[in-house]
Amino acid sequence: MRASQFFISTLKEAPADAEIVSQKLMLRAGFIRKVAAGVYTWMPMGLRTLRKVETIVREEMDRAGAIELTMPVVQPAGLWQETGRWDKMGEELLRFQDRHERDFVIQPTSEEVITDIARNELKSYRALPKNFYQIQTKFRDERRPRFGVMRGREFVMKDAYSFDRDMEAAGKSYDNMYRAYCRIFDRLGLTYRAVAADTGAIGGDRSHEFQVIADTGEDAIVYCPQSDYAANIELAEALAPEGERPAPGATMQKVHTPRVKTIADLVGFLKMDIRQTVKAVVVEGDEAPVLMLVRGDHELNEVKAEKIAGIKKPLTFASPAAILAAFGANPGSLGPVGFKGRIIADRTVAKMADMVVGANEDDHHYTGVNFGRDCAEPEVADLRNVVEGDPSPCGKGALAIQRGIEVGHVFYLGTKYSVAMNATFLDEDGKPKPLEMGCYGIGVTRIVGAAIEQNHDTRGIIWPDAIAPFGVVICPVGYDRSEAVRATADTLYQGLAERGIDVILDDRGERPGAMFADWELIGVPHRVTIGERGLKEGKVEYQYRRDAEATDLPAEGVLAAVLERLGR
Amino acid sequence: MRASQFFISTLKEAPADAEIVSQKLMLRAGFIRKVAAGVYTWMPMGLRTLRKVETIVREEMDRAGAIELTMPVVQPAGLWQETGRWDKMGEELLRFQDRHERDFVIQPTSEEVITDIARNELKSYRALPKNFYQIQTKFRDERRPRFGVMRGREFVMKDAYSFDRDMEAAGKSYDNMYRAYCRIFDRLGLTYRAVAADTGAIGGDRSHEFQVIADTGEDAIVYCPQSDYAANIELAEALAPEGERPAPGATMQKVHTPRVKTIADLVGFLKMDIRQTVKAVVVEGDEAPVLMLVRGDHELNEVKAEKIAGIKKPLTFASPAAILAAFGANPGSLGPVGFKGRIIADRTVAKMADMVVGANEDDHHYTGVNFGRDCAEPEVADLRNVVEGDPSPCGKGALAIQRGIEVGHVFYLGTKYSVAMNATFLDEDGKPKPLEMGCYGIGVTRIVGAAIEQNHDTRGIIWPDAIAPFGVVICPVGYDRSEAVRATADTLYQGLAERGIDVILDDRGERPGAMFADWELIGVPHRVTIGERGLKEGKVEYQYRRDAEATDLPAEGVLAAVLERLGR
């Protein structure tokens, strides 16, 4: 491609409403333009990268035996009512009526349509296993779309759905997709982790998120540097501390703690180790409020808390009025002493002695509290988020935490949708059975943003070779003035293009500084600069995008030298 | 591809609501499945053909220098209000509100968004010319979606938009697209015509429809077999008959014509040549009703009628009450005699003598009516549709008419959108000027249906090679039983696949009859059947989809023989 025949539109400054680095760089480099909140045009430069991501995803899905189809963007409400998602999903599900006042949605995913296809088409065990996928425009009406393509409303997603005879076969389909995802993210050239994730109401242990590692990621990823253990923070298990609970060493005392509302207040007021304090959280149980206890420096893990039997789902914090009725005090002064209801202590709390807790009397706490002596022995559960340095559940070391951006998810669905929609097949024994399903998503547009969050510097984007809009840029200095420059640039361009290299020749006639700034912003990995002075010395300049400085290549044989840099 | 790893789902009967042959065959062959009225899933088999069409369109758009981008499916109302289309477009424009009650549309085309991009990005004459295109999901909320993908609501369209400095440059962009379209339809392997079409309010002569020729087409295409003249029926000019108007030969007489309401009634009642009769149509003028006259056997051309100065736009037929007030009679008995208002006669009527016309008195007609003698001389205009045998406007022969399906449209837009949206560029003289635009559409999904309407027989679809889901099918008889059959089939399959031929090996184990019926329905152009009996005689069978019978190929060297059939 010659730049004069393409469309390059870079900006000195990102629009004022751009918040994160990928959004700013995509706007500045002319990858996207905003049309409405969370709705973008993919400009020619951006579309090249998007298509490369799509192609890698498609090739690996095909290689894994998944079969591509395309379901409609606009879907009738009826199917969504069958599964209950019409009612259950919130406002992020975009609903509308057509001219005949029939209800429709714009697809955020396609479980309903694919299950409808499956119940019509996959009627025998002989038709199984099957895995259908699409790469398609989706819409999610985010309350607050932001961060460019990272949390847009209209986006491109690859969604795949597997259908199997039984759980064992479904497990194989799941593993097959897991491996395909690893190949996809390997080929994309991104640093990522597959982390175990919560399966929610489905149960089972088959849910993994694929997270692109980036300091700016919204998700906390827990992993063990000594093993392949990795999970998201919702799922990562916090083990009980080793050893027995110490014997009580103090007597319980009531302390007046005026204006102490938080653990930080308490620690400051009492001048004590935060690890002696206990945080009280009251949630609704199926019948009455339940007191949950985590150590002062720990965070309640709501996903873990919700899974406990007898806890209202979704997890609901008790109202101030309900708390006052049950405890006789307001939040900030709550604790287990004297509370007659259900008490669940985190595993760490269960091993504590001489605790500091709220006294169930406003502006008062107890110190020196011990389970069994001063209050009832609690139920014990894993209630908290792990923290850096916790022992890994794999038993091989201490946990580390890093930030990630979720770009893929593989998920075992079981028969949730097939039972709701009566999608059965006739098994070998002649009996109808519900199809076992899995679903597998990749945020194609999101990958583009995540790749930038992971790979950029102050000058701009640094694309992995596989998804750069162009692999190589040739920057001739004086293309219009110098015969030698033009001839060398044209020859190199043709040589690379003939070998199928995605090369762009910058023939716009820009000054070198502006030209270099554009290509560093756009993030093309390999740059060859050809100038008259260098040619007189038999040299051209080569610079890899991550290099601090350019190096010389011989002008003779520059094609071979560049191909070598490209690993070709 | 092996059939066992693909998804093949053929039906014996099309669903009862399928109306036309392409719709029936696409459903039966498993190309599409209906999700809602006018909304389909493209199943794996259909998607293969759709993607091949897309690829050809994309390659030729790229070759023509157009630059691909992707505008959003969901577009904010604001842009549509700027051009007035928010108000002007009817219910086929799907409007909805997001969760914040902001108005949006689902794009039927993207003139507004691309013009918004142009006014921000194409600010100098140095940025011109530019042509941007996308291949994208569109939605048009048809009142009565029908005919499968031929008139669906959700569809895939390639839409391109050119931006130029002036009309001359815009003309070059138009011609460039016209040529690209010819290459596209040539490569698709379809019989088509580019026909001149009406430009409506834009004016000028730059509008062509690309019509796939099919007896079942909705559009009438007028062409001259002796030249390259072709136009759609709305635009095709009806020349005036040669020679002078004959002198009056009869005297005017009033005839009682009870219950005669139509021209057919009149001809039957008076037992006369229909070519002596004149049909009266009353339309609203800017001030008063206008009488339009066409010969009894001709049809008023509403597009031509609407273009006449002083005629209300859009063309509006006068109400029965207005007609009664102006003529003193009801439709069925109207004519020029005694009418004091504006009279416009078609060119053919203007050359008639001794006409039979309504008498402006219910149940009465006049015979022997002559202009100038019995009523005023009318204005003369081209008011009618041409008919087969009319002299061609090119002067080289008589017109013929055939049916077509519109699959593409190139259209000079002028400054309609750029003026409405203030999309100007700074010209070389330093002055801002509105961008000259053209728009260029191809109905990608519609092409698939049109190709079938043109190419099918009683057994199924007959794909042109370029867009067949598979180019070659290998049908082994006894693949599981016979070593020789399996080896020959596998070797041929690998040989073709290695050469990049889109081949499918039917390893499903179906009986030969069912297997052949499937592939004839699906329409794969080249079939190779391999059976044990044939192999013993050193033969395999080859059949081209259009052939009535199979022919033998030598089993030795079958790969070379098949490649020759494929023109490789």
TrEMBL record, chains A, B:
One of its GO terms (cellular component) is cytosol. Keywords: Aminoacyl-tRNA synthetase, ATP-binding, Cytoplasm, Ligase, Nucleotide-binding, Protein biosynthesis. It is an enzyme of class 6 (ligase). NCBIfam families: PRK09194.1, proS_fam_II. This is Proline--tRNA ligase. Residues 33-464 form the Aminoacyl-transfer RNA synthetases class-II family profile domain. Pfam families: HGTP_anticodon, tRNA-synt_2b, tRNA_edit. Belongs to the class-II aminoacyl-tRNA synthetase family. ProS type 1 subfamily. It is found in: Cytoplasm. Consists of three domains: the N-terminal catalytic domain, the editing domain and the C-terminal anticodon-binding domain. It catalyses: tRNA(Pro) + L-proline + ATP = L-prolyl-tRNA(Pro) + AMP + diphosphate. Homodimer. One of its GO terms (biological process) is prolyl-tRNA aminoacylation. InterPro entries: aa-tRNA-synt_IIb, aa-tRNA-synth_II, aa-tRNA-synth_II/BPL/LPL, Anticodon-bd, Anticodon-bd_dom_sf, Pro-tRNA-ligase_IIa, Pro-tRNA-synth_IIa_bac-type, Pro-tRNA-Synthase_IIa_type1. Catalyzes the attachment of proline to tRNA(Pro) in a two-step reaction: proline is first activated by ATP to form Pro-AMP and then transferred to the acceptor end of tRNA(Pro). As ProRS can inadvertently accommodate and process non-cognate amino acids such as alanine and cysteine, to avoid such errors it has two additional distinct editing activities against alanine. One activity is designated as 'pretransfer' editing and involves the tRNA(Pro)-independent hydrolysis of activated Ala-AMP. GO terms for molecular function: aminoacyl-tRNA deacylase activity; ATP binding; proline-tRNA ligase activity.
